[in-house]
Amino acid sequence: MTQAYTWGAIFAVVLASCSGDVLLSHAMKQVGDLGELWRQTTLLHLAGRILKNPSFLLGVACMTVAFYSLMFALSWADVSLVGPAAAALTFVANAVAAKIFLHEKVDRRRWAAALLVAGGVVLLAA
Fold first, then answer.
1. d(CA 79, CA 124)
2. pLDDT of residue 1
3. pTM of the full predicted structure?
4. pLDDT digit string (tens) for 3-14?
5. pLDDT, average across residues 12-24
């Protein structure tokens, strides 16, 4: 039963972390080039522009859920399983999400790396 909890928490980490990454990337693309904005305005205005973006706030909330899910997973299983599995599956999920939601070009090398990482998770879990 503990193994089901562990994998459930790992998948919660992956889902929340990937969602947070996509939302934060979307938010920062909406905000614009921080270097250019920094030269044009004050730090307080720049921080306000970022913090008023709903995608940014939701992304931070997702990353918070990912962090606490990771803590739960680590309370049920060894870090030697949870750490690599969560990181590897997040890498794969980020590649898929970048292609689908952010319309980024994901080249063959990244897909190959994602498949190798997924294979490593299968070997780790066995």
1. 12
2. 63
3. 0.83
4. 888 889 999 999
5. 96
CA distance 54 to 59: 8
DSSP 15-47: HHHHHHHHHHHHHHHHH--HHHHHHHS-HHHHH
Q: What's the chain's average pLDDT?
A: 89
**Contacts (Cβ under 8 Å, ≥6 apart) of 16:** 62, 63, 65, 66, 69
Q: What is the largest CA-CA distance in the chain?
A: 56
Q: C-alpha 81: how far from its chain's center?
A: 18
Return the C-alpha torsion angle 124, 9, 57, 114, nearest 10: 20
Q: Which domain holds residue 60?
A: 2-125
Using only C-alpha atoms, the chain has a radius of gyration, in whole angstroms, of 17
